[in-house]
Amino acid sequence: MARVRLPAGSIVIMISLIPTIRDEEARVPLRTSVPSVAVLFVQTLAFLSMGLTFSAAGTGMGFGLWTLIAKYKS
Fold first, then answer.
1. Which DSSP category does 26 fall into?
2. What is the pLDDT of residues 24-41, one digit of tens each?
């Protein structure tokens, strides 16, 4: 059951980031986005090393979205 809840939480967080990505005028400070990218990258590696592929996929997608935000919205 925990395997389902972790990715589900990641999906909800990712869905909440989509309006920021789509808004052409949105600006996110680098001091917010860069730490998020770093933490999600480390979490993804940690989940992969433990064999938690669904959790790794969830945090990996969050890493991708925050990377886009850091690159285009900062």
1. -
2. 899 999 999 999 999 999
